[in-house]
Amino acid sequence: MSSKQRQFDALVRSLSGDLFRYGYWLCGDEALAHDLVQETFLRAWRALDNLRETAAAKSWLITILRREHARLYERKTPQFADVDEIDVIDERDAHMPEFAGEENVIRNAIRQLDAKYREPLLLQVLGGFSCEEIARELKITPAAVMTQVFRARQKLKAMLGDGEIVEARVHELP
Amino acid sequence: MNCLEFRRQLLIDPRTTEADFQHHARECGRCAEAQLRALAFESSLHAALSVPAPAQLAESILLHQATEQQRNRQRLRRGGGLLALAAGVVLAFGVGLHLQAQPLPEIVVNHLQHEAFVLSMTKPVAAEQVRQAFASLGVTVGELPADISFVGCCPVGRYSSVHLLMPGSNGPVTVLYLTDDRFEARKDFVREGWLGRSVPLAHGTLVLLAHDAGQFDRIENQWRRALQNAT
Known about the structure:
The structure holds two protein chains of two kinds. Chain A is mainly α. Chain A contains nine helices and no strands. Chain A has two domains: 82 residues, Rna Polymerase Sigma Factor, Chain: A; 91 residues, Arc Repressor Mutant, subunit A (Orthogonal Bundle). Chain A is globular, with a radius of gyration of 18 Å. Chain B folds into two domains: 47 residues, no CATH class; 171 residues, no CATH class. In chain B, helix 1 packs parallel to helix 3. Chain B is elongated and about 80 Å long. The chains are: A mainly alpha, B alpha+beta.
């Protein structure tokens, strides 16, 4: 196996899960997220020589995935025109045990966030990126990132209510 | 930092390690309690965002990449112009002479050592994935053995191959099927502590490698059945 192939294998094995989760929250669909990640890694393979620092691999892959997602959305938007995305996802959630409970309530709230609030939050909570790194990725100012993650958490907390309300929703209390 | 700034920071990044922030949490009991609540919320948020990735995601990505590489090679082989052909002939002659000088046991053991991580894989792979790997190299297979825990399309030296792993009671057995090259005789070999067997099968050659050859006959028969009508 060539050293390029070994480097690629290591990238796939260490980062494909994180990329999938990020892709899933970008597009809201497991199958589409799977395709997105596959396409992202294929593009990464073709451009692997451009990756100079291992530490930058995750943000490099996320940049590719975001571009790929944008391209995919441009191509596929008409197919989603009549679909009420939230309802479809909720229906699926109700039948999948792994989506049950408190996590399900929080996931539904996250889905209802505007993309402009959801994406920086994803990068911070899932990706572990700092506000400065998120700003570079999203091409906005660090101050704008701070405002967006601030509002994202504020909106989530408002949607979820206090802890007691979440408890009540999870356990179907009045 | 005052309480208002602290509470604002809790909503921006509750995990921050900034000295001012940490100092305020030590000094102010109510803000410290708010921080605990914020960190608990953060954990719930992280858990909710961490949707499970599909099983075998990494393997399917690697298979996709290997398949594309193979397709590119075929395209290159078919579509090369006169110049490419001429260059290819020169290159193939040089590289071919070198690679042909390497005996098969050396080539396959080298490959196995480069991909040693495969030996620890124990999760079963879907039969469909195995079929797809063979199909991507133009081989149609029949009834497949049930216990396969890895599949990938790999160039092995100058050969195209499907690389598989079959876990066994006495350690895993690596199976390589070189799709286009049929070696003439079936033979057993020993190389760098590995026991091996090469078997001409259909249009290619099956190679088995393990530290214990006790399962070779059974596995060879399983692949004979799978590949007997291979096209």
